[in-house]
Write a structure and sequence with these properties.
Blueprint: H1 7-24, E1 35-36, E2 39-40, H2 66-74, E3 80-84, H3 96-100, E4 106-112, E5 115-120, E6 134-138, E7 141-142, E8 162-167, E9 181-186, E10 197-204, E11 208-219, E12 222-233, E13 242-256, E14 259-273, E15 278-279, H4 280-285, H5 292-296, E16 300-315, E17 320-335, E18 338-359, E19 362-385, E20 388-414, E21 417-434, E22 445-465, E23 468-479, H6 483-486, E24 487-489, E25 494-496, E26 502-515, E27 518-536, E28 547-569, E29 577-591, E30 608-617, E31 622-631, E32 648-658, E33 663-670, E34 678-681, E35 698-702, E36 707-715
Parallel strand pairs: 6-9
Antiparallel strand pairs: 1-2, 3-8, 4-5, 6-7, 8-9, 10-11, 10-36, 11-12, 12-13, 13-14, 14-16, 15-35, 16-17, 17-18, 18-19, 19-20, 20-21, 21-22, 22-23, 23-26, 24-25, 26-27, 27-28, 28-29, 29-30, 30-31, 31-32, 32-33, 33-36, 34-35
């Protein structure tokens, strides 16, 4: 058992403060500032017991209405984003890339199937697989494993009602303080669903077909919703076949006025063949090929995940108390350079109180929370014999535990200006036990590392006009290494490497709002990092997990911008509109006086990512939306900056019609010019010194070629 962390007394103190505040505080009327897309508007107090406003689709005590969700996001003093699932219901949304591609500051690129690179402000900038530096949540409850690692396979875009993006330290509202922040995907309930019944089928290129259903009902104090999606696709490349089945359900029950409990159940099965990486020449000239090692090793990723969670909510005299509990079981069979065979559980509890109190006649918004979560993972490895287990090479146990206390406060010292303060105290333990005893790995090894600290936050929010907000803040982040960092593998053995936690100070300033036909959301940030967790691939062609080291000093800075202009109205005289939207993410990530890499760029992510969307909407339900995804200069493939991939531009068109009877038809055409491009890179230290030279370096994922998808959806 891990020793009692020093943060525990602080957690107890925070819990006492929470209880005392609930007893003593005085309720005041809140003037919430919801930002609808990039629109700020006033709001009335919520209806008692539902969280809804007059004239708005009601939510419930555990899950507020979508407008309430948006309001909570945009009350944040810092860079955030809110995506309503209604915006992507009628297009081919298969991955988080399809959901978040219009969100500035979020870099998300497909590798194959549902495997992505997801990075916010350079989180996991050189990570060649899965996720690091971002906390994923579903319905406000963590999806990441206890060590902080995570992937994307259990997120079904067709099972979502909204997505909340909290960049960097702005994710403190959930207790997350990683460099990248948090992304919360919210599933619908019977109260917030777009329709009681939804049936959908879509498909197209690469022999893709997907079926989905959603069914919900309200019966007195009870409500339930169940949804499921099955996807089958051969993929763009050889050996990229994808088979997934996702099931999500929730059941809510109103125990008493203002008291509600809701259970979430999920089952997620994925069987994804891996095509591997290619040389730069093959990726641009023979992009549908698979790496020969991926075929001979029958490389794949087979994941079975089950999740059960509960939120019980209490509307108090002051504010609301949510108590979350969860358990996640994950089984992974993953033949790559070796067969990785893992099975583990993650479980946790997290009470959180939020409310508005009167402090000396001034409005004061508060959030207080605790989180305790832990897990164990049995980590086995075997030689890979055409995708089957050969001789065993590793038998290890990975244990992680986390204890956290956090709080955030917004004090409105003027009617249009608020001071935000906050902090998180944490203690995280990582214990690794390698049992050894194998010819390939005879050594018994035990590793133990505990990471503790406090992450403060300070900011200012100004609302000079009802539809305009200006903000600035300073936040501290800490990224604790996960077991992919700590237990590093190569062809010979697996070794525990006691890395330091990555820490950073981030400064940001921005504005969001709307003036007539012009809407904007613009933020500039600068993160000064110490001991950044930097990855590089030892041999990307064999799919060996990347090695990790601490870079003494690095710098991440950039601009996150989205500007939208309604350029024309009533073209045909009956309410149709034409709008133009420009999204720009500027990334400047570099080493600072590094003893090996000097001031070089950190490889893996391009400097600029731009997306331009022209939209036409007709009151009949018809819409047409051509777009361009443009990367002027590709990313470096190595930290030595000797090899850069070419830039590219992709032309896309989406069109469809929503009939008044609830039936929708859509067509989604992508990369119409069949552009050959690099979508992602398995970063190395120096391409020039790689075995066989840069020309032989198999470190590149080709982007998908021309594709067309179409579908029909019925909501009734």
């Amino acid at each position: 058992m891990p020793r009692l962390p020093r943060v525990a007394p602080c957690a107890a103190l925070l819990a006492l403060l929470l209880a005392t505040t609930s007893l003593r505080a005085q309720t005041v009327a809140a003037t919430t500032i919801p930002l609808d897309q990039i629109t700020v508007a006033g709001a009335a107090p919520p209806d008692a017991g539902t969280g809804a406003r007059p004239g708005e689709t009601a939510g419930s005590v555990t899950v507020p209405s979508v407008a309430r969700q948006r309001a909570a996001v945009n009350a944040t003093v810092g860079s955030v984003a809110f995506v309503d699932a209604a915006d992507f219901q009628n297009r081919y949304a298969n991955t988080l890339r399809d959901v978040l591609k219009d969100t500035p500051g979020v870099f998300v690129q497909e590798r194959y199937g549902q495997e992505l690179r997801l990075s916010v402000r350079g989180s996991g900038v050189a990570r060649a697989f899965h996720l690091r530096g971002i906390e994923l949540l579903q319905d406000g409850i963590p999806l990441n494993l206890a060590d902080g690692s995570g992937d994307f396979y259990q997120i079904d875009p067709l099972a979502l009602r909204s997505i909340e993006v909290y960049k960097g330290g702005n994710a403190l509202t959930f207790g997350a303080t990683t460099l990248g922040g948090a992304i919360n995907v919210v599933t619908p309930t019977a109260y917030t669903a777009l329709a009681p019944n939804i049936l959908r089928i879509d498909g197209g290129s690469f022999n893709t077909i997907r079926e989905s259903f959603q069914f919900s009902r309200i019966a007195g104090p009870a409500d339930f919703l169940i949804s499921g999606t099955a996807t089958n696709s051969d993929g763009y490349r050889t050996h990229e076949t994808q088979r997934t089945q996702n099931l999500n359900a929730n059941l809510g029950y109103r125990l008493a006025p203002g008291v509600e409990t809701r259970f979430y159940i999920g089952s997620y099965n994925t069987d994804q063949k891996l095509p591997g990486t290619l040389s730069l020449f093959d990726a641009l000239n023979n992009p549908q090929r698979a790496n020969p090692a991926a075929i001979s090793g029958n490389q794949s990723r087979q994941v079975e995940t089950q999740r059960i969670a509960n939120r019980t909510s209490f509307l108090l005299d002051v504010g609301k108390l949510d108590i979350d509990t969860w358990a996640i079981h994950k089984s992974l069979y993953h033949p790559i350079f070796q067969v990785i065979d893992q099975d583990g559980w993650t479980y946790g509890i997290a009470p959180r109180w939020a409310g508005t109190v009167d402090v000396g006649g001034y409005r004061n918004d508060m959030i207080l929370g605790l989180r305790a979560f832990a897990g164990q993972n049995s980590a086995l490895q075997f030689t890979n014999v055409a995708g089957q287990r050969g001789g065993q090479t590793l038998r290890a146990l990975q244990s992680a535990s986390n204890y956290e206390a956090y709080g955030e406060n917004r004090f409105w010292f003027l009617p249009d200006m608020a001071l935000m303060t906050g902090a998180k105290l944490f203690s995280s333990n990582r214990t690794y036990s390698n049992k050894g005893g194998f010819a390939a790995n005879p050594t018994v090894q035990f590793g133990n590392a505990t990471y503790e600290g406090i992450n403060p936050k300070l900011g200012l929010l100004w609302q000079p006009l009802p539809d305009i907000q200006v903000f600035g803040d300073i936040t501290r982040s800490r990224d604790v290494p996960d077991f992919s960092d700590l237990a590093q593998s190569n062809l010979l053995r697996t070794t525990f490497v006691p890395l330091e936690a990555q820490r950073a100070w981030t400064y940001e300033a921005g504005t969001r709002g709307r003036i007539d036909r012009l809407a904007w959301d613009v933020t500039a940030y600068r993160s000064e990092l110490r001991e950044e967790l930097i990855n590089f691939s030892i041999n990307p062609g064999l799919n060996i997990p990347a090695a990790t080291f601490n870079a003494p000093r690095t710098l991440h800075q950039g601009i996150e911008a989205a500007v939208s202009l309604e350029v024309a109205r009533d073209l045909t005289g009956i309410g149709d509109t034409v709008s133009l939207t420009q999204i720009w993410t500027h990334n400047d990530f570099r080493f600072v006086r590094d003893p090996v890499f000097g001031n070089n760029r950190i490889a893996g992510i391009p400097d600029d990512v731009l997306r331009t969307v022209l939209g036409y909407v007709h009151p009949s339900g018809f819409y047409l939306s051509p777009s361009v995804d443009w990367v002027p200069r590709g990313a470096f493939a190595d930290h030595a900056n000797t090899l850069r991939v070419p830039g590219y531009a992709l032309f896309n068109v989406q069109t469809g019609i929503d009939f008044k009877n609830g039936v929708s038809l859509f067509v989604d055409a992508r990369n119409l010019t069949d552009e050959r491009y690099i979508s992602d890179i398995s970063v190395v230290t120096n391409a020039a010194t790689a075995a066989g030279g840069a020309a032989a370096l198999a470190a590149f994922y080709p982007g998908n070629g021309r594709s067309v998808f179409a579908g029909i959806r019925a909501a009734f």
